[in-house]
C-alpha cells in the first residue's frame, strides 16, 4: 500500500510501505476512506514532537471500512463503516477506568501517527479497536464524521469543558484555525454573552463570524481594548488558546479577568512565559490537556440530529494520493484560505 511517511523535520513522502497486519487480538484493520490533516501534523513536521521518529506513517483522523478484525473483537465485523478515534483506549488501566483515555497506561492514548503508524495511508491498523472506533449511521457522511476524530472533541473537552464556559460568559478564542472554529461552535452551545475571535488572517476571522463569533480582532489591533468595551473593563471570563505559540499563550493571560479561566488547547513546541508576578493574585485558573474523546458519542448524536453544522469547515478536497499537495495547501492558510482539508479514496 501507499502511505505518507515522516522523514524527519520538514520531510514527508507518499511512498510504498508494507500492508498493516493484525498483531493483537483487539486489533482491527481498516481501509481508509476519508482522512484529514491536523495542525498537530504540522507541529510534527516542524520538529515539535520528538517522539515521532523518521519512518512513521502520519495521521490520526480517519473514517474507514473494517476489513479484518482480531480474535478478541466481538463488536465489529468486516464491511462496517467506522470513525477511528485519535485516542486509543485499553479500557482497563487506572486512567481509562475513569475516562481519561488520553492518559492510557497500556499502550493507548494518542498513539496513531505518533508512537505507532497512523492513518494517512490506504490501510491502517487500529489497536484496541473495540473501544477506539465508533460505528457510523448512514445519515452521517464521511466528511462530517472525520471532524469528530479529533478537532471537535478536542475543542469541546479541552477548551469548552475545561474552561467551564457558562451562560452569559464572555469567551475569547485566540486562533481561528479549525480547532478555534470548533471551540467557537462549542461555546455557542452554552449561550455566552459574547464570543470574540482573534487571528491574524482576514479569511479566518470571516470564518469565525460564520461559526458564531460576535466580534473579531487581530492581535495587533489591541484586543484588550475591545474586550474591555464588551465587559465594562473586567476582561474575559474564559480565554481559549488554540494556536500553540508563546505569544498567543501570553496574550491569553492579558485578556482574562480576575477569577477567569484560561484553557490551553494549542500544541506548544517552545516554552511560554507564565507571568505569575501578574497572575498570582488574580485567582486565575489555567488548564491544559490532551483530549480523552469521552465526548465523542455525544457529539456524534448531536451531529446526527443536526445540532452541529460542520460542513462549511471543509474548504479543500483531494484524492488521498494528493496528500502532499494537500499538506502544502493546509500549511499556507493565509494564501490558500484553507480551514480543514479532507482527502478521500474517491475523488469528488
TrEMBL record:
Residues 25-131 form the Alcohol dehydrogenase-like N-terminal domain. One of its GO terms (molecular function) is oxidoreductase activity. Transmembrane segments: none annotated. Its cofactor is Zn(2+). It comes from the Bacteria. InterPro entries: ADH-like_C, ADH-like_N, ADH_Zn_CS, GroES-like_sf, NAD(P)-bd_dom_sf. The keyword Lyase does not apply. Pfam families: ADH_N (PF08240), ADH_zinc_N (PF00107). Keywords: Metal-binding, Oxidoreductase, Zinc. Residues 178-297 form the Alcohol dehydrogenase-like C-terminal domain. Belongs to the zinc-containing alcohol dehydrogenase family. This is Alcohol dehydrogenase. It comes from Rugosimonospora africana. The lineage of its organism: Bacteria, Bacillati, Actinomycetota, Actinomycetes, Micromonosporales.
Amino acid at each position: 500500500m501507499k502511505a505518507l511517511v515522516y522523514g524527519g523535520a520538514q520531510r514527508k513522502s507518499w511512498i510504498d510501505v508494507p500492508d498493516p497486519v493484525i498483531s493483537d487480538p483487539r486489533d482491527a484493520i481498516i481501509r481508509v476512506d476519508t482522512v484529514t490533516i491536523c495542525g498537530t501534523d504540522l507541529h510534527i513536521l516542524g520538529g515539535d514532537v520528538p517522539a515521532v521518529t523518521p519512518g512513521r506513517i502520519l495521521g490520526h483522523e480517519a473514517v474507514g471500512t473494517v476489513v479484518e478484525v482480531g480474535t478478541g473483537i466481538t463488536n465489529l465485523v468486516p464491511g462496517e463503516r467506522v470513525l477511528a478515534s485519535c485516542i486509543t483506549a485499553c479500557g482497563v488501566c487506572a486512567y481509562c477506568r475513569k475516562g481519561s483515555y488520553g492518559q492510557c497506561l497500556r499502550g493507548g492514548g494518542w498513539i496513531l501517527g505518533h508512537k505507532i503508524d497512523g492513518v494517512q495511508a490506504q490501510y491502517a491498523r487500529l489497536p484496541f479497536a473495540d473501544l477506539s472506533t465508533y460505528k457510523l449511521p448512514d445519515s452521517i457522511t464521511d466528511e462530517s464524521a472525520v471532524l469528530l476524530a479529533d478537532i471537535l472533541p478536542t475543542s469541546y473537552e479541552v477548551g469548552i469543558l475545561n474552561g467551564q464556559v457558562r451562560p452569559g460568559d464572555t469567551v475569547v478564542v485566540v486562533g481561528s484555525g479549525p480547532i478555534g472554529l470548533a471551540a467557537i461552535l462549542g461555546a455557542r452551545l452554552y449561550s455566552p454573552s459574547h464570543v470574540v475571535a482573534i487571528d491574524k488572517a482576514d479569511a479566518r476571522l470571516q470564518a469565525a463570524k460564520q461559526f458564531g463569533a460576535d466580534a473579531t480582532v487581530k492581535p495587533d489591533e489591541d484586543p484588550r481594548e475591545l474586550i474591555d468595551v464588551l465587559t465594562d473593563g473586567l476582561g474575559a471570563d474564559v480565554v481559549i488558546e488554540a494556536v500553540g505559540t508563546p505569544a498567543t499563550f501570553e496574550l491569553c493571560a492579558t485578556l482574562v479577568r480576575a477569577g477567569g479561566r484560561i484553557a490551553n488547547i494549542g500544541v506548544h513546541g517552545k516554552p511560554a512565559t507564565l507571568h505569575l508576578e501578574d497572575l498570582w493574585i488574580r485567582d486565575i485558573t489555567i488548564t491544559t490537556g490532551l483530549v480523552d474523546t469521552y465526548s465523542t458519542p455525544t457529539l456524534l448524536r448531536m451531529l446526527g440530529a443536526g445540532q452541529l453544522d460542520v460542513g462549511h469547515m471543509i474548504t479543500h478536497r483531494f484524492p488521498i494520493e494528493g496528500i502532499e499537495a494537500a499538506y502544502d495547501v493546509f500549511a499556507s492558510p493565509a494564501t490558500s484560505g484553507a480551514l480543514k482539508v479532507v482527502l478521500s479514496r474517491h475523488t469528488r
